[in-house]
Amino acid sequence: MRQKVEVPQTAASEDEVRALIALIDELIAVVAEENVELAKGLPASRSKQLDDKNRLAGIFEQRVAECAARTAALDVKDRVLREQLLEHILNLRFAMDENLVRLRAAIEASNRRIEAVMQAIREQIANVSPYGASGRRTVRATSCGTNVRA
Known about the structure:
With 150 residues, this protein is mainly alpha-helical.
């Protein structure tokens, strides 16, 4: 029979909670900046905030994983600090929800641009191709000048 190993859970100090709030604020700022850029119609892949957002999100994800694994806790004794943390987490969620909507719109816009380019290429190829839609060679009328000297 396996015994469950208890990992000691350390309570978060006020400094750790304040550091987490600062991390959340920094992530919110980067996401908000990206949302402004995406609102201008820029493609999602050109977002200059992508590296910062990924770095900060990785740190935040690690902290959340620590809490989920019970190696760290966010048992905040100070009620005001706990409410601040919850408020910042909620603000992050709202910013990320907006970011998701804007990223989807940017991806759809990029897909429309790609499809427009592909359609133009298809039309250009169809105009110069010696083959028709059936795959058979088409006979094109050739112009002959009347002033041909042999």
